[in-house]
Amino acid sequence: MTSPHSVAPDATDVAVVGGGIVGCATALELAQQGLRVALFERGEPGREQSSRAWGFVRQQGRHPAELPLAAEANILWQELTCRYGGAATGFETGGILTPAETVEDEARILTAHEDAAGFGLRTRILSAAELRERLPQLAGSWRSALLTDGDGYAEPACATATIAAAAREAGVRFHTRQPVLEVSLRGGAVEGVVTSAGLHRAGVVLLANGVGAASLARRLGLALPVQVVRSTVARTVAAAPFTRLAMWGPKVAYRPRPDGSFVIGNGYRGVGGDYDITPNSFRQLRHFLPAYRRNWRLLRLSLGREFTAQLKATGSAAAPEPPPNRRKVAHNLAAFRRLFPHLGALPLETAWAGRIDLTPDVIPIMDRPWPERGLFIAAGFSGHGFALGPSVGRQMAAWIMRGRPALDLAPFRLSRFTDGSAAYARHSL
Fold first, then answer.
1. What pLDDT score does 275 carry?
2. What burial letters (b/e) apply to 43-72, b meaning 16+ CB within 10 Å?
3. CB of 245 within 8 A of CB of 145?
4. FRET pair for 85, CA 20 to 30 Å: which of 33, 142, 156, 310?
């Protein structure tokens, strides 16, 4: 195990900060290898963004750097489901469809297909006729569609709870409702984490606490370029089931649930989340300016309760529930109804929102910024943390235990934002 100094007998080998799917999956992997692990969560495990995701578990449409993680995650989701049962994860490989309505849409899905095919994924382009045959209930005029049959979806709340329970059973000690105030250094190396209960000694600390990671990192002199995005999701009432296919469409995304209801979210044409201004927004403004300039017509910036919530986030209990954007809920529901007119005016059952930790290039930060000092970071997942979580947990655990991950995580290094190597994607907002 990578450790900068010896660990006291009453301490733990690794302190994981954050009880979402990434933190719990990493803690589980470490404990299964015999390490002593303590996990610190400011609220309850899996109650924040990991339980509020859309639930997509996809490989198609990924940034090329994420494809190896996505492929491994797909296998691990299947293994988790075999081990704990379908009800424990809700995982199903029903396939994910990305249809193209315009020439620009078609160029987008062709690029995604080429990226996936280059990595060896089994994706295919459906013609308009093949799409009609595959999903005859779908209304509209479509040019083609990208389909990955092996992709699927899972139930975020129950799947994250299952991984957390497995981590407990493996021996991970959970410290809930115990926010970490700072990471303690001694002689330049990690000494442990400080909570309201005092110093908890650990030779290695992993920051996996989503939107809270930037604040803790800043206290160590590390700048994480992360913007808080509030993502709104909704669920319809149940209808007669007619498809297992999920869709990431230009105007709305959806995934089916076994009872016939649908989880719906934003489409891929840029009508995304709400960009809530926080203290870190000002600190990292220079990293986000290129994307802001390209996408300013699509942005909805707000300054209010989220600024205060994030200002207090590190030293307080869990942040208050973020409010969903009702206007976007109505927009997405109307778009969904147009896709499937046979459902009529299918009503909503509920809507909710979550806080996404977005990076300027929309891929995560996974790094050991100070070699041999015992600090690791897994944050900035930009809405991809739920799907990639099992793979990220495996890779971060391997890095901590053996000094290097099995997959190449170099594209996710923090220094990419200062050495000029970060690629700011056109669709980064």
1. 64
2. eebbbbbbbbbbbbbbbbbbbebbbbbbbb
3. no
4. 33
Dihedral in degrees, nearest 10, Cα atoms 218, 219, 221, 225? -10
CA distances in angstroms from 54 to 121, 255, 290, 339, listed in the order given: 22, 8, 27, 19
| Token pair 């899996």: residue | 46
- What b/e sequence results for 367-402 when a residue is b if at least 16 CB atoms lie within 10 Å of its CB, and e otherwise? bbbbeebbbbbbbbbbbbbbbbbbbbbbbbbbbbbe
Contact between 90 and 152 (Cβ < 8 Å): no
CB-CB contact of 253 with 54 (8 Å): yes
CATH fold label, 12-417: FAD/NAD(P)-binding domain (3.50.50)
Q: For residues 286 and 214, what is the distance between their CA atoms, to the nearest angstrom?
A: 16
The CA distance from 278 to 313, in Å, is 11
Instruction: Give the tens place of pLDDT for each residue, 120-175.
Output: 888 999 999 999 999 999 999 999 999 998 999 999 999 999 999 999 999 999 99
- Domain positions in the chain: 12-417
pTM of the model: 0.89
CA–CA dist 175, 179 (Å, integer): 9
Residue 280 CB partners (closer than 8 Å, separation 6+): 214, 215, 218, 224, 226, 227, 228, 310
Residue 298 to residue 251: CA distance in whole angstroms: 13
Give CA–CA dist 417/361, Å, rounded.
9
pLDDT, one tens digit per residue, over 263-279 is 999 999 865 667 666 56
DSSP state of 419: T
Tell me, what's the pLDDT at 276?
65
pLDDT of residue 315: 46
What's the confidence (pLDDT) of residue 228? Answer: 85
pLDDT reading at 223 higher than 50 = yes
